Amino acid sequence: MDFTEATYSFIRSSGMFRQKGSVTVGISGGADSVCLFLQLNKLKERLGIDLRAITVEHGIRGSESEKDSEFARELCQSHGVSCKVVRVDASARAREKGISLEEAARQLRYQAFFDNTKEGDYIAIAHHLEDQAETVLFHMIRGSGVRGLIGIRPVTEMRGRHIVRPLLFATKDQILAELSVLGQEYRTDKTNSDIRYARNRIREVIMPELMKINKGAIRHICESAESVGELYDHFISEEKELYQRALVPGDRKEENRLIVKELIALPDSSRRMIIMEYLRDTLSSIKDVGRAHIERISGLLEDSAHFSYSLPGRAELKLEYGMLSVTYPEEQTGPYLIDLSGLESDGEYSAELGDITFEMRIMKPEKALIEPKTYEKCLDYDKIKKGLCLRDHREGDFFTIDRQGHRKSYKDYCRNQKIQTTDRGRIPLLVYENSHIAWAVGYRISEDVKVTEATRRVLWIKAILEEDNGRQNQSHAH
Fold first, then answer.
1. Among 313, 275, 314, 265, which Cα is nearest to 295's?
2. Alpha carbon 264 to chain centroid distance?
3. Distance between CA 442 and CA 161 in Å, rounded?
4. In sequence order, what are the residues at sequence separation of 6 or more whose Cβ sits closer than 8 angstroms to the Cβ of residue 20?
5. Is there a smaller number of Cβ atoms within 10 Å at the N or the C end of the chain?
6. Cβ-Cβ contacts under 8 Å for 355 (sequence gap 6 or more)
7. If we measure between CA atoms, which residue out of 459, 475, 462 comes closest to residue 365?
């Protein structure tokens, strides 16, 4: 069987492309991704797929990296396939997130795939057998548990996309041989042999030694991973059901939570498995989370009613009010300054700030809302006309809670309302005079900006969230 037929057979046996959807192939210009592109391009009519390509230039290797992207773009163009070039800054991402350059590049690469596809689409990645063996070994030495021993699967789901790996059956030698038969050139990234990176060290140092012991080491490791995956799927069914029962999905995966009472009575092995599954689904990267972390978290759940536990990648795991959640404390929103002076002459104001659109206008007091709504408020314009600032919570923020001018800190308000720490940082705040909260969007307004009999001008303001799910018309007690 020639290489293309072997690829087609693996695609069919792995259940790829069963649903309709566009296929975007990630192409770097290297041998693996070039081979993947050529195979999918050959098979696109038989598979009934619409093929596109993306090449990500990571901003790491200067002109060499630019040449790789241009090579990939021209190759795709020569076969009549569109190829989008996405430029990112992996070095800046690594510094910002406190992660390795390798991990930063991986995260940005996948983000580029997600940003340029839609739900239901396929993203094709050029992983092969050696990648699988390296991944299993990497997970073993990191202590990532049973799930880690499965390695890479042919088909996975991420953010509503189907991630497929049509070359996972092939060895590197088979890929190079196919390119030789086709007379196809490719680019070589010299950093792939830099053994300062963990995966490269496994590939360049450890795997050759294992091959000396047994020439079939790579294939045997991959076969073992496949067997572990089959056993995992068979025995994990109960844990999956328990996990779904405990999971409270968020609008985004980062907002997922776990109901802790569902975990406490479980055997420790089941609890650890569910915790790992939760972190795998919720964290931006599971790369440096190992067995020691999972065992520590499992113990904390038994012993503590509240805790905060630091995880790799600057993430924090918090237990509050019986819910387990993940937060990234260093991530903050804004600030965005909103100049209200134009309202007096123009009458209306509209601005898109992040995921929120604000609509504002000045009206007479008698036209003010009688029934306050969650995302629609009327404020005393003359109290805040110097301007508002939209941002997240900062230390010292407060509400005025009564006509006598008594104050309550934002933290105390959230604690009284049982708003979890993970949510507190996500609530947009409209603030004036540095720390005085006029409105916690979606929650209460400050007492001294409320419309009263003395109010001469009313600022009507409506916040339209990107995904409001119909909440705009809800009323709120405050």
1. 275
2. 28
3. 31
4. 48, 120
5. N
6. 465, 466, 467
7. 459
Residue 125's pLDDT band (cuts 50, 70, 90): very high
Q: With CA atoms as reference, report the closest residue to 104 among 95, 113, 117.
A: 95
**What is this structure's pTM?**
0.57
Q: Are 459 and 380 in contact (CB under 8 A)?
A: yes
Cα 454 to chain centroid, rounded: 48
> Angle at the Cα of 142 (from 141 to 148), degrees rounded to 5?
95
Amino acid at 51: L
**Contact indicator for 363, 463 with CB cutoff of 8 Å:** no
Q: How far apart are CA 410 and CA 403, in angstroms?
A: 18
Q: What class does CATH assign to 3-231? A: alpha beta
Q: Would you list the domain boundaries of the chain?
A: 3-231, 246-327, 336-473
pLDDT tens for residues 237-275? 777 888 888 899 887 778 889 999 988 888 888 888 889
pLDDT digits (tens, 9 = 90+) for 421-453: 767 777 888 998 888 999 999 899 999 899 888
Range among 14-23, 66-75, 135-144 rated most confident: 66-75
Question: How much is the average pLDDT of 383-400?
Answer: 84
Question: In 97-154, where do the E strands start and end?
Answer: 122-124
Amino acid at 249: P
Query: If you average pLDDT over residues 45-61, what whole number do you get?
Result: 92
Cα of first residue to Cα of last residue in the chain, in angstroms, is 71
Residues above pLDDT 90, as percent of the chain: 37
- In what order do the strands lie in the sheet containing 122-124? 83-87, 51-57, 23-26, 122-124, 161-164, 155-158
> Domain 246-327 carries which CATH code?
3.30.465.60
Cα separations in angstroms, 217 against 77, 207, 258? 39, 8, 40
Of 79-83, 230-234, 240-244, 392-396, least confident by mean pLDDT is 230-234
Helix (H, G, I), strand (E, B) or coil at 287: coil
pLDDT at residue 344 greater than cutoff 80: no
| Rounded-to-integer distance, Cα 294 and Cα 275, Å | 7
Q: What percent of the chain has pLDDT over 70?
A: 89
The SS3 assignment for 247 reads: strand
3-state secondary structure of 294: helix
H-helix or E-strand containing 161? Answer: strand 161-164
Q: Is the peptide bond before 329 cis (omega within 30 degrees of 0)?
A: no
The 3-state DSSP class for residue 91 equals helix
Cα distance between residue 105 and residue 219, in whole Å: 28
Contact (CB, 8 A) for 174 and 3: yes
- What gap in Å lies between CA 253 and CA 283, rounded to an integer? 8
pLDDT above 50 (res 468): no
